[in-house]
Please model this.
Amino acid sequence: MALAFDEYGRPFIILREQDQKSRLRGIDAQKSNISAAKAVARILRTSLGPKGMDKMLQSPDGEITITNDGATILEQMDVDNQIGKLMVELSRSQDYEIGDGTTGVVVMAGALLEQAERLLERGIHPIRIAEGFEMASKIAVEHLESVSNKFEFSASNIEPLVQTCMTTLSSKIVNRCKRDLAEIAVKAVMAVADLDRKDVNLDLIKVEGKVGGKLEDTELIYGILVDKDMSHPQMPKQIVDANIAILTCPFEPPKPKTKHKVDIDTVEKFQTLRQQEQKYFDDMVQKCKDVGATLVICQWGFDDEANHLLMHRNLPAVRWVGGVELELIAIATGGRIVPRFQELTPEKLGKAGLVREKSFGTTKDRMLYIEHCANSKAVTIFIRGGNKMMIEETKRSIHDALCVARNLIRNNSIVYGGGSAEISCSLAVEAAADKYPGVEQYAIRAFADALDSVPMALAENSGLQPIETLSAVKSQQTKDKYSWYGVDCNDVGTNDMREQNVFETLIGKQQQLLLATQVVKMILKIDDVISPSEY
Amino acid sequence: MAVERLFKDEATEEKGDRARMSSFVGAMAIADLVKTTLGPKGMDKILQSTGRGNSVTVTNDGATILKSLHIDNPAAKVLVDISKVQDDEVGDGTTSVVVLAGELLREAEKLIATKIHPMTVISGYRMAAECARNALLEKVMDNKDDTDKFRTDLMKVAMTTLSSKILSQDKEHFANLAVDAVMRLKGSTNLESIQIIKKPGGSLKDSFLDEGFILDKKIGIGQPKRIENAKILVANTAMDTDKVKIYGARVRVDSMARVAEIEGAEKQKMKEKVQKIIAHGINCFVNRQLIYNFPEELFADAGILAIEHADFDGIERLGLVTGGEIASTFDNPESVKLGHCKLIEEIMIGEDKLIHFSGVEMGQACTIVLRGASFHVLDEAERSLHDALCVLSQTVNDSRVLFGGGWPEMVMAKAVDELARKTPGKKSHAIDAYSRALLAIPTTIADNAGLDSAELIAQLRAEHHKEESNAGIDVITGSVGDMSVLGICEAFKVKQAVLLSATEAAEMILRVDEIITCAPRRREDRM
Model:
């Protein structure tokens, strides 16, 4: 331990309670960090690709998640190691930015670190390695750009989008009906997409799930689904051409925010107060009725009396609708959210062609469908499935598919999947390496080797001979100069990814490489780990 | 260098074969646990709760058993979950689904031991499940158009469901009850309008279906015990001190006289409210909330029957039955829809007095009164009846039925067997295994009945080799019988749900190659 002494020979205390902290320095710190990160990557490695396996995670409360979504696995894994946490962050940022490829990015980072470890053993300085990786990643990203294809699609021709989404879904448990789900995801995205600005607001797509039924029953609803029922059991269950009043004020007497007291000291006051109260309810309902509303959706609760009055005046109502849902309803129906009864006007009402209540199964579960809205730019994907875990996993898969479709709308370049993009990059990086003088050359070559590990993992998970498959594909790519040869995971019989229709988005792939390199650089730069010891 | 620690303390990680082994063992243990309850001769389980009172439940309903278990194995939880969903969705087949999933995993374990990749097993299972479903679809019977035949179908389905439950002694009686009740719903799957009242005493045979509505309440003292041509106002309103709802209101007085005045005003207000209610021209008033003595007395004076504290479901049902609306304000009597019924009277069941509404307008709702020796019997009877009602209401919507007694499994196994022969590659092993797993259900039924399962299954198989066979296991005589003669039927929807959910669950567990268990959340120390 490094100690500093003052002029009298007494040691300076630099770290508080120095002796109670464990400390790792230099090459030891790097090696320990690398091995921790590799351990995380190893866990995810088997989940990669269409034949990847799932992980079962039991949370502290005993809840069970079964998934092969990299981000979800890492998030729920309860990792304690600091470097492990960095990897978790890495996959999370890929999830936020791109939404797909969360497993691939971690596997890539793990492979890079493995290579870095070897270089460290040869005595190459970590910073040089990091710089070499940086250069290599730049080459790879540029190469990806050059091999990418533009994808032509339009509102009427969504087939290319569906194909790409299917690639994403094929690695999930839902691959049984990937075609249906991919179509649903693409249609949902197309419904809300702003094709001119090339932007998609995924907030407009709501994903709801309900246990029961089959996965095939999953449907896309051009409207909103609210997990609520009518406030009064005897209200009509179906409303055609509804004018919806969207309220955020309760059907209750006003509660001024300033503290106040109403004193009752005479009989007259008591009676007038009572009358006022009754009138108040009456006015509220009348106001809704006057503006022509045929359905009231309220964020708050109703008093029993108000409820009956609404029922009485033939004004169906829904209560306790959550804020997010309320906003979606407002967007979909083109209505305005009204905070006070006084501000209700006919223009502020939302319009929907059909509002209906539907019940499910044998238990009393009801949901409200709001369909044929004035502004159809809000859709709901309603997932059915055998059990809760299945629904949760389907939700995650749909999320991935939605993100992929969105990325394609933003940037319609694609690269071929099945590891072909990685192999082609690896070849390009390998070729470029020789041009660099100096130690970085080694690092660049190592980067090329690391790129190979993704198709290797794919082959391994699909039950193929990893080295044999990889070398075969590589030689094919060099020979024909085409970048669409990849690993044949599904045993279709061809290595041509164009024929297999396996596509990935360009930005997703680029992001994977950049993020993985960044994290690896960060880990390599650490040379001192100070952690408090157990207490 | 080894990684020191990746996970938090106490978090465990199981990988590869170990993980698979642990989930197989857990799932099979659960399947074996409920296995003995399958079929008409299945045994019951006693469940003792660890909560206060150590209350005891005797049941053979798979969902109920699994719900009450405390399970730590994650794979076992998946099975518990599918059984719960089966219960919610179709109501019956909760045991079968777990047993089938367990058998599928047992077969899968053998395949994996011979080095077949789990993904291959899964794709084989998927093909087999699809094929089995199609085989069933070909053989379904649909008697929707013929009302009489449809009713006999329903009766058969109900009797088959009930025969594995405690009610099997009086299954005809109860099947009749259940079919009657469900037919009244006219296609709605909303079972809320069928009320089940449990009263200990008498025997199960004394249970009956009442066309009217029975409310488990007493009639107030001094009020008429019998009303003919009743006009009923169903309400949800406060009949205690109707408090001022404006926030922050309070009473502040300076003398006793004032208190008295305000009290008087309050009384006056209540009186007015009662007057308004009476002005509806009713002779029966049912309120969800409490009715204080004072208004109750006023009602009694006016000769009106006032019932307080009817629970929420009761109110909704009553509103539904009598065709009245649930009112909370009483200012415009002309537009409030009143409920009607021919007769309200107090009846006695056992020792308890109940209020009986008969001759109601809408025939949708009805009440089933269950009688039985003890609460345990009654609880189990209710569960059984609930299963039957669920299945029936689903069958009314999807009128396709199949034979029971292991017949559908044999049909499916035969079709799957044929598929296995046609399929090239490793998948055919998995498909073969699927058919073996299907056969496990009739085997278990036979075993539970104490029959020679190996002999019976072989006979059944031979019988099914002929075209259009209706053979199944006749548990009563212990031989192979014609299911169409014995009248053993099951709903197609239930069988399909069993098939699909079991396959889905097995697939889910098979796909797992790693289990990570987080450290259990520590309870806060309360000391």
